[in-house]
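User: Teach me something about this protein's shape.
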Amino acid sequence: MTPQNITRLLERTPFVPFRLHLTNGQTFEVKHPDFVWVFRSRLELAVPAPEDARIKDRAEHISLLHTARIVELPVAA
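Assistant: First, the predicted structure itself:
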């Protein structure tokens, strides 16, 4: 996975949420483009707090090298 691949997904209009599948089996959902910072070799993903999505609970550091695939999530109607 390249930073350009992720950037294209984040800049789509309208934005389509997606799930990152890592090589170790972990998955992370990206529900808003502002929750991700793209670096050359990694992503910084803000994980919302369970009680309030406006508040971030923690950050996940995701290596692009270990991002196996990306799956689009259904968009709420």
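Now, about its shape. Residues 18 and 31 are 7 Å apart (CA to CA). Strands lie at 18-22, 27-30, 36-38, 42-49, 52-63, 67-72. If you'd like, I can walk through any region in more detail.
User: That's plenty for now, thanks!
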